[in-house]
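Researcher: If convenient, please comment on what follows.
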Amino acid sequence: MSKYDYNIIVIGGGSAGLVSSYIAAAVKAKVVLIEKHKMGGDCLNTGCVPSKALLRSAKMLSYAKRAEEFGFKQTTVEFDFKDVMQRVQNVIKAIEPHDSRERYSKLGVDCIEGEAKITSPHSVRVNGKTLTARSIIVATGARPMIPPILGLDKTDYLTSDNVWELKELPKKLLVLGGGAIGSEMAQAFSRLGAEVTLIEMAPQILTREDEEVIKTVTEKFTKEGIKVLVNHKAKEFIPYPNTLKKGKGTLVCEHGGKDVEIAFDKVIVALGRTANTEGFGLEELGVELRGNKTIDATPFLQTNITSIYVCGDVTGPYQFTHTAAHQAWYASVNALFSPFKKFKADYSVIPWATFTDPEVARVGLNEKDAKAANIPYEVTAYGIDDLDRAIADSEAHGFVKVLTSPNKDKILGVTIVGTHAGDLIAEYILAMKHGIGLNKILGTIHIYPTLAEANKYAAGQWKKAHIPAFAMKILEKFHKWRR
């Protein structure tokens, strides 16, 4: 085409689409954002925001149960579950303006509510009107994956999409999936008073983490009354009234070659997410997908149709809000300035956190990753049970675990387990991104008493282990001579 209506058409108003639109508008490009439902996408409406709001309320109850640890004889908390869920909605509404059509319109983005249909490499039809652009960015996100388990379709199951509609606390809650979402929901609902059973087909929950991480979280769950059943493969859901056990349904699992029946009132399916790639024209254009049904893309986030770019959960490989925003920068800049300038997406330092209690935060390699890739490494660990602030807060548990190159202070990866781990790891993310080693972290003043001192003490542990023995002998002789 010789003329276009827009520089970029963005499809999807979640994190990836919002950031893509924001960047395009910021550099004075003409951009239109099309969202068929709610601005903010999953993160605001059904994901990060509501889940963290629920976890926070549940955490308050956990503190009440630990009253004696803080010097109180006892504490009682009266609450109604529907009020807790209303707080979740209130939090969403408080954050909504950040992602609203009004805000983005003021930033210079044309916002359209409607279903987009890509009709050519440069055109999109919405609400009966065809719009054209030099480039199109697909940021349609993902949805909960629903497995083909017998009887599930006849069960009134919940996912991260609709669990927020609950008004009554389930007495017996079954959580299917021991990943991040399943683990977070299991602990939150358990703390709110549900009898929770967590089902995982693999031998462990949080399977991507190292052994001591999994052990720490599993022990915490068990202590809090969550029934963690690993090596249990879901075979069939038997809904009420056919169930023989008390409850509204039964899940039949295979475990050790035998069938095990687990009764439940409600079930949350948390088995990962499926990219939203169907129904808006990609098939007709021949946009290529990977084997896992995400949209295939070059390192420049360009599909096989060169005018169509992609970012966020719909392409992966990391399905996090922060990586969606990260990819959005590359997708929008490449879409706007290609072929004059192109940037490869940088996945060298990708952090994430699981917001269980204790939190688990990761950046770079852990031991599982390093061993799988045959990368040599050293391990330095610091126990947070030794940290003054953690002791004062009655949160003296967990650890900082750092992987470094052998005999060097170069950081290959960090895992932190403990309270506020997701915040503490930021220092290591910065260090890895900009090539800062443990020596410089050790040489940086950290406020006393704070949890962040754990990062410095971990660096100190590394330094202590790498002081040459001969140097210590020379120093000992020097000081003896000085006496």
User: Anything to note?
Assistant: Residues 102 and 181 are 31 Å apart (CA to CA).
